[in-house]
TrEMBL record:
<dbReference type="InterPro" id="IPR011990">
    <property type="entry name" value="TPR-like_helical_dom_sf"/>
</dbReference>
<feature type="compositionally biased region" description="Low complexity">
    <location>
        <begin position="160"/>
        <end position="177"/>
    </location>
</feature>
<protein>
    <submittedName>
        <fullName>Regulator</fullName>
    </submittedName>
</protein>
<feature type="region of interest" description="Disordered">
    <location>
        <begin position="160"/>
        <end position="196"/>
    </location>
</feature>
Length: 494
C-alpha cells in the first residue's frame, strides 16, 4: 500500500499578494526568471510552478528571495520571503538589496559574514551582475538619511539586578535617553550581543582594518580574507547588536562599513566577484547609517573599479558619476581627483578618448589644487602622485597610447612605496605592455618576468590575471628568443 503525500496548506499570503500586484501566474514566473538572470541564474519557472507554490509547495534555494524581490519592486515596499508565506533562504542571496533600515542592514550583512566565514565555497562562485548596481547606487543617492541608529537595551528584565542597579555613566553627547548600558564583565573573553560598545571597541575595529589593509596591499587578498570575515562575524556583529548611543553608533557603523568594504575588496582580489559585489552594496548601506556621505562615495568608486576590471565600462562611469553627484563640489581636492580618475578608467575601457582625456585633466587639476592643510578622509590619503600616475598609465594602455602609458607607469613605479607591492606589480605589467606596444620586446619580457615572480609570492587572482593578460599579448611573438626566455623564467617559478 503506497503512502499518500502529506497534505499541504494553500499559501493564502502569496495568493493575496499576486492579486494585489495584478500578476498572472505566468507573469510572476516570467519575472522571477528575469530576475534570476540578473543574478547569473538560469531558471525555468512557468505558470505550473506558481500553481504549485500556491498549493503550498516551497521553492528551493535562492528562489524565495527572488520572488520577494519581484513583489518588492512591483509594490514599492520591502517584502521578505516570510511575508509571502515562503521559507527564507540564506541571507547572501538578498545581499544586493539596499536595506530600508539600519537594523535590516545589520541582519543582511551579518548573515553574509556568517555564511562566508564557514566552508561555503558556493559563495565565491556567485556571478557578478551589472544590473545589481542600479538600485543600491540610486537608493544611496536619493535616499533619506537614517534619523537614529541608537540601540538601548531591549530586554531590561534579562539584565542581572546588580548590573541594573549600577549603570555606567555615558557622555552627555552620547546619551540616548534612559539608556542602561551593559558593561563587559571582568575577565570576559568574548563579546556577546547587548553589551555596551566603547570608544576602545571602535578603535580596535579601526586598527584591525589597518592591519588587514597592509596584508592585502603586500601579499594579496587571499592571505587573510577568511580571518577578516571571521573577525567581522565574531567581533563586529555583536557590537552592532550591542548597546550604544547616537554618536557611538554612527562611529560604529562607519568602522563596520570600512571593514565590510575591505572584505569585499579582498573577495574581489581572489575573483569572488558576486560575493564582493554584495559586500560593497552592504558597505554602502552601512556608510549611510554612519551618516558618512564621503565614505559612501568611496564605496561607489570601489564598485566602479570592479566594473572596470570586469569590462563593464558603462556601469563604471555611471557609478563614478553617482559618487560625484552625491558629494557635490564640497569634497576635498584629493577626493575630487580620485572620483575623476575613476570615471576616466571607465571611459578608457569603452575606448572613449575625449571623455577619458577630459576626466584625467580634471583629476590632475584637482590633485594640483590640494594643499598640505586640507582636511582629507583617511581612505583618500593614499591617492597621491603615484596613484594618479598609475591611473594615467592604465588609461593610456587601454586606449593603446603606449608611449604615454609607459611614461606614467614608470613614474608610478618611481614614486610608489614598496609596501604597495600589488599596485607596483600592476604598474610593472602596464609598463611591460606599453613596451611591447612600442616594439621593445626584450624590455617587455624582462618586466613581465619580474611581475610574474612577484605574482608567485602573492595570493591574488588579479595579480595572476594581469600576468596572463600580458602573456596573451605575447602570443604573436611566441617564437622569438625573448619570449622563449620569458617562458623559461616563468616555468622555473613552478
Amino acid at each position: 500500500m503506497t503512502e499518500r503525500p502529506a497534505q499541504r496548506t494553500p499559501n493564502r499570503q502569496l495568493a493575496a499578494l499576486i492579486a494585489e500586484a495584478g500578476f498572472s501566474n505566468a507573469g510572476l514566473a516570467r519575472r522571477v526568471d528575469q530576475l534570476g538572470l540578473e543574478h547569473g541564474l538560469d531558471l525555468r519557472y512557468d505558470k505550473t510552478s506558481v500553481t504549485r507554490w500556491l498549493r503550498g509547495q516551497q521553492p528551493r534555494g535562492t528562489t524565495p528571495a527572488l520572488i520577494a524581490e519581484v513583489f518588492t519592486r512591483r509594490l514599492g515596499r520591502r517584502l521578505s520571503a516570510q511575508d509571502l508565506g515562503l521559507d527564507a533562504c540564506a541571507p547572501v542571496y538578498a545581499g544586493l538589496e539596499f536595506a530600508a533600515t539600519p537594523e535590516e542592514a545589520v541582519d543582511i550583512v551579518s548573515g553574509l559574514w556568517r555564511k562566508d566565514s564557514g566552508s561555503h565555497a558556493e559563495l565565491r562562485k556567485i556571478a557578478f551582475t551589472p544590473a545589481g548596481l542600479v538600485v543600491p547606487s540610486r537608493d544611496w543617492l536619493i535616499g533619506r538619511a537614517d534619523e537614529r541608529v541608537v540601540r538601548a537595551e531591549a530586554h531590561p528584565a534579562r539584565v542581572p539586578a546588580q548590573v541594573r542597579a549600577a549603570p555606567r555613566p555615558t557622555a552627555a553627547a552620547d546619551r540616548p535617553g534612559p539608556l542602561v548600558p551593559l558593561p563587559r564583565q571582568r575577565g570576559q573573553a568574548e563579546r556577546g550581543p547587548g553589551q555596551r560598545v566603547t570608544a576602545g571597541d571602535i578603535a580596535a575595529l579601526r586598527s584591525v582594518g589597518e592591519l588587514f589593509r597592509s596584508l592585502d596591499d603586500m601579499y594579496g587578498g587571499g592571505h587573510a580574507r577568511q580571518a577578516l570575515v571571521r573577525y567581522l562575524e565574531h567581533e563586529c556583529e555583536p557590537m552592532l547588536r550591542g548597546t550604544y548611543g547616537e554618536q557611538t553608533g554612527r562611529r560604529l557603523f562607519a568602522a563596520a562599513a570600512d571593514l565590510t568594504r575591505l572584505a569585499g575588496w579582498t573577495s574581489y582580489d581572489i575573483a569572488a566577484h558576486g560575493l564582493a559585489q554584495r559586500y560593497f552594496v552592504q558597505a554602502l548601506r552601512l556608510a549611510q547609517a554612519a551618516g558618512d556621505r564621503s565614505y559612501g562615495a568611496y564605496v561607489l568608486i570601489t564598485m566602479s573599479r570592479q566594473a572596470v576590471y570586469l569590462g563593464h565600462g558603462r556601469e563604471a562611469v555611471q557609478l563614478a558619476r553617482v559618487a560625484q553627484q552625491g558629494l557635490g563640489g564640497s569634497a576635498a581636492p584629493v577626493v575630487q581627483a580620485l572620483l575623476h580618475a575613476a570615471e576616466a578608467r571607465g571611459h578608457a575601457v569603452l575606448g572613449e578618448v575625449r571623455a577619458c582625456t577630459a576626466s584625467l585633466a580634471r583629476a590632475e587639476r584637482s590633485l594640483e589644487a590640494a594643499r598640505p592643510g586640507d582636511e582629507v578622509p583617511p581612505w583618500a590619503r593614499c591617492f597621491d602622485e603615484a596613484q594618479l600616475a598609475d591611473e594615467l598609465g592604465h588609461c593610456h594602455r587601454d586606449l593603446q597610447q603606449y608611449r604615454a602609458a609607459a611614461q606614467h607607469a614608470e613614474r608610478s613605479l618611481q614614486l610608489r612605496a614598496p609596501a604597495y607591492a600589488r599596485s607596483r606589480l600592476f604598474s610593472r605589467v602596464v609598463l611591460a605592455t606599453a613596451r611591447l606596444g612600442l616594439g621593445d620586446l626584450d624590455q617587455a619580457c624582462r618586466l613581465g618576468a619580474e611581475a610574474a615572480g612577484q605574482a608567485a609570492d602573492m595570493r591574488s587572482v588579479r595579480a595572476n590575471e594581469y600576468v596572463r593578460d600580458f602573456e596573451r599579448r605575447l602570443e604573436p611573438y611566441r617564437d622569438a628568443a625573448p619570449v622563449r626566455t620569458y617562458r623559461d623564467k616563468v616555468a622555473a617559478l613552478g
